[in-house]
Amino acid sequence: MIRVMLADDQKILAEGIRSVLDTCPDIEVCGVACDGVAAVEMAKTLKPDVILMDVRMPGMNGVAATKRIKESDPGIKIIILTTFDDSDYILSGINNGASGYLLKDIGSAALIDAIKNAYEGDTILPSKIAKKITDAAMMVSSDRQIKLKKAYGLSDREVDIALMLADGFTNRQIAAAVKLSDGTARNYISSIYLKLGVDNRMGAMEKIKEIT
Hints:
single chain; about 210 residues; alpha/beta; Rossmann fold; Arc Repressor Mutant, subunit A; five-stranded parallel beta sheet; 11 helices; 5 strands; about 55% helix
């Protein structure tokens, strides 16, 4: 049984989501928080497996609540579920520990599948959202790209991935953003480490930030 907590200040929407999830015998809705502050406190008490987190809520927004919850209990999976597909929200949510980002126009079956997949450890990024991340990650000046290419001989794809590394993306988030398998993304990252002359993520981030 997957224990799911909802965090949404719009009661009618929370009730609708709960009704959808109640149709799945593998999912139990263990609580509903009406704002970010309540979500943080309820997560400590209820210890859900997965949280569906709205973004814009009074008191504390969903991104800030996600960060607080993940700091307290990294094992909880959090899916941002919102009407907003703004790239800043998407990147902030993912970078603060969210397992995925969904829009509220998602179908019932797809939402249930997303919860199950997040519970299993997958990153949940529909193609529309993945494109937003890719576009945001690639909105960098050509000057930064040229510097990386000249300094370390990186390919265009390696430059894109290196810049995402510098911004704190995980391997899985990079793979989802540039539509690669996890293994292929790891191979690119290993190649980047080799060209930068480092053997870990922290060293790579420092080298990239120094040059850009």
